[in-house]
């Protein structure tokens, strides 16, 4: 910033006319003419998020997870709800009939029948899942399924009347700098919203093989996990999942799973209770000197070996689509339907080779 400020007088000086020489040999130049200054008009931002909040918050739920006090699998309370007076009050407020609270989180109703999306880490290892709506009504939820590799879960509550719900938006249309609103249940205080922008796309924070987060600067705290991120149309474009923080609280580094990843996983968990991923049976590694991924190892009984893939091959494309990194290839393989054929293009001894691999089903042991 200091360098820029020092350069301004120099830039302004270049606009001045040439100065006549002392000998008077140079002709005076006419002053340059400029168009009238036009004020820079930026697109108007939202003057208030209140209409959006009124529209979507009834579908955002608070989730309390408990375990029976005499359970053999009883756990200690997570550190996120131990120390401060606020956190201790939260813990006491969430106790129900001798149950021990393991934690709390958020979710959102996706269907008026009571289907709810949240994070897997919010509801795993629970004996009882209690869902509270904004109007104070509470329901006991059933777990439909968890995908541990992406930390996505689907639960369901039963209601005699249709419930408020929200709809998906397309995260592929989201741009860095777009306004967003995050909703959830920070520290068990109840329904809460924050606003900010999308800070970055495609973040890998080391939580799993399918990391591809939107980074947000909207404050997200413990208890917000599983809550939705909305665009200004009130559509869910991401699932709030993680924060990076030296203190445990928000420092403006929140991470949400884009809807383009969440939607197919939710659909599988909702309808089937599990997710079947494609499996290649090979270890892929990035290589600095090439675009593509090195085949570092091949399972001799896996689909890759049966399809002719060899150790040392460099994969450059899958299904005709060029790919630069091992991570993008792993996602493409996982997204492929088991028992389908996948065309794989490799460089082998500097020669292109096209192989057809019959994709297998990812073993559950790798989840």
UniProtKB/TrEMBL annotation:
Catalysed transformations (reactions): Acts on substrates that are at least partially unfolded. The cleavage site P1 residue is normally between a pair of hydrophobic residues, such as Val-|-Val
A biological-process GO annotation: proteolysis
Keyword hit for Disulfide bond: no
Ranges where the PDZ domain occurs: 276-348
Location, primary (coarse class): periplasm
GO cellular component: periplasmic space
One annotated GO molecular function: serine-type endopeptidase activity
Chain coiled-coil ranges: none
Endpoints of the signal sequence: 1-28
Catalytic activity, EC: 3.4.21.107
Record field: transmembrane: none
Xref: PROSITE patterns: PDZ (PS50106)
Superkingdom: Bacteria
Keywords: Hydrolase, Periplasm, Protease, Serine protease, Signal, Stress response
Subcellular localization: Periplasm
SMART domains tied to this protein: PDZ
PANTHER family given in the database record: PERIPLASMIC SERINE ENDOPROTEASE DEGP-LIKE-RELATED, SERINE PROTEASE FAMILY S1C HTRA-RELATED
Family: Belongs to the peptidase S1C family.
Annotated protein name in UniProt: Probable periplasmic serine endoprotease DegP-like
Natural source organism: Acetobacter senegalensis
Lineage: Bacteria, Pseudomonadati, Pseudomonadota, Alphaproteobacteria, Acetobacterales
């Amino acid at each position: 910033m200091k360098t820029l400020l020092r350069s301004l007088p120099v830039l302004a000086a270049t606009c001045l006319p040439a100065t006549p020489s002392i000998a008077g040999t140079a002709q005076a130049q006419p002053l340059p003419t400029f168009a009238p200054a036009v004020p820079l008009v930026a697109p108007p931002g939202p003057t208030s998020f209140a209409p959006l909040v009124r529209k979507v918050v009834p579908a955002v739920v608070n989730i309390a997870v408990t375990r029976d006090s005499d359970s053999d699998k009883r756990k200690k309370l997570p550190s996120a709800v131990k120390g401060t007076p606020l956190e201790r009050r939260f813990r006491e407020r969430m106790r129900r009939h001798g149950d021990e609270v393991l934690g709390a989180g958020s979710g959102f109703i996706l269907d008026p029948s009571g289907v709810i999306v949240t994070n897997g880490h919010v509801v795993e290892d629970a004996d009882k899942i209690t869902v509270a709506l904004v109007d104070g009504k509470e329901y006991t939820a059933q777990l439909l399924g968890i995908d541990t590799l992406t930390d996505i879960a689907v639960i369901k509550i039963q209601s005699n009347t249709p419930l408020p719900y929200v709809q998906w938006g397309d995260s592929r249309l989201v741009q860095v700098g777009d306004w967003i609103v995050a909703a959830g249940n920070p520290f068990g205080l109840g329904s809460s919203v924050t606003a900010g922008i999308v800070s970055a796309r495609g973040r890998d924070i080391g939580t799993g093989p399918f990391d591809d987060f939107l980074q947000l600067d909207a404050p997200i705290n413990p208890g917000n996990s599983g809550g939705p991120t909305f665009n200004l149309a009130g559509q869910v474009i991401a699932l709030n999942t993680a924060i990076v923080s030296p203190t445990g609280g928000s420092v403006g580094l929140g991470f949400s799973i884009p809807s383009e990843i969440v939607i197919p996983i939710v659909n599988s968990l909702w309808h089937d209770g599990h997710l079947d991923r494609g499996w290649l049976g090979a270890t892929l590694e990035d290589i600095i000197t090439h675009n593509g991924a090195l085949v570092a190892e091949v399972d001799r009984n896996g689909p890759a070996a049966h399809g002719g893939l060899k150790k040392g091959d460099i994969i450059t494309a899958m299904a005709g689509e060029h790919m630069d990194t091992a991570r993008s290839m792993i996602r493409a393989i996982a997204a492929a339907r088991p028992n389908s054929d996948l065309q794989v293009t490799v460089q082998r001894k500097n020669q292109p080779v096209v192989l057809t691999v019959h994709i297998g089903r990812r073993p559950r042991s790798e989840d």
